[in-house]
Amino acid sequence: MTFDRTAEDLANIVGLEHTNVKVADQRLATLFYVVGMGFTRDPYMTTGVVNMWMNIGKTQIHMPTGTPQRIPGHTGITMPDLKGLKARLEAVKSDLRGTQFSFSASRNRIDVTCPWGNVYRCFPPDRKHGPASLGIRYVEFDSKPGSSAGIARFYHEIMGANTAVRKAGGIAAHIETGYHQSMIFRETDQKIPKFDGHHIQIYLADFSGPHKELLERDLIIQESNQHQYRFKDITDLDSGKKLHTLEHEVRSMTHPLYGRPFINRNPDQTNRNFVQGYSDQPYILPFEEKR
User: Fold this and answer.
1) Helix, strand, coil share of the chain (percent; to 5)
2) Number of helices and strands (H, E) in the chain?
3) What is the pLDDT of residues 197-234, one digit of tens each?
4) What sign has the CA pseudo-torsion 208, 59, 55, 49?
5) What is each CA distance from 282 to 40, 42, 136, 271, 286, in whole angstroms?
């Protein structure tokens, strides 16, 4: 037997664990993300009424209460059952009337807008995109024309990521952020809103190397603790010109939260159809051995 061993290689960014956007109302967030989308509120962390961490397979969305934030672009999510998702979204439609909530379904995709304007594209599992049956597959950001090459270079040289500039669907910088996971910066002629403070969180294998490079360029905005720092400006490495603003919460693989197990419920299980042993939602496809 022969195998493509390079298909299992990871670069320095080993995972994009969560996105973070503020929401105006925790009740509406529960209706949309838990009841409608079928995700699971983390039962261990931030269990009060001013923030919630929403489990999506091995990834999350964090939602503190505040002035709503919106990611210009969209988040791609692998979902195990689009038919069930559509039914749940129909069920919450009346309760979310008067917000920005909407959705449209096609054969292999459901596009959903949350009550505050964040867009999610939901896809069925597909092994060519990895073994996940539930989780954030990518986050796509609107970016300025002509910025893709510089953004790709920044992530490659400063963050140690595998990167590429691709033209399919419009010019975009593709940044590997883990196993079959990526960030995409797609160029657009539309006006990009002023940065509102949303952020993403990544884990690095080489934690100190990028920190040194960012520090030399005066790009570190927070020295959080021994295991974490933050930066937000992506710059041209020759001129120092700002190419894009996106706050990064950067964690080491020795961070206490790295690899923490996430609980994912089966959203189809209710008190009316309850069966013991079916309460958990698998988030990885069954292993298929290649022969």
Assistant:
1) 15, 35, 50
2) 4, 16
3) 999 999 999 999 999 999 999 999 999 999 999 999 99
4) positive
5) 12, 16, 15, 20, 9
- CA-closest candidate to residue 110, choices 132, 138, 89, 127: 89
Which residue, chain included where needed, has tokens 């009316």? 272
* Region 11-252: CATH code: 3.10.180.10
Give me the amino acid identity at 186: R
Q: Residue 35: how many CB atoms within 10 A of its CB?
A: 16
Cα dihedral 241, 188, 161, 12, rounded to 10, equals 100
The pTM assigned to this predicted structure is: 0.96
Decide: helix, strand or coil at residue 23. Answer: strand
Q: Could you read off the pLDDT of 98-146 as tens digits, one per residue?
A: 999 999 999 899 999 999 999 999 999 999 999 999 999 999 999 999 9
For the chain, give every domain's residue range. 11-252
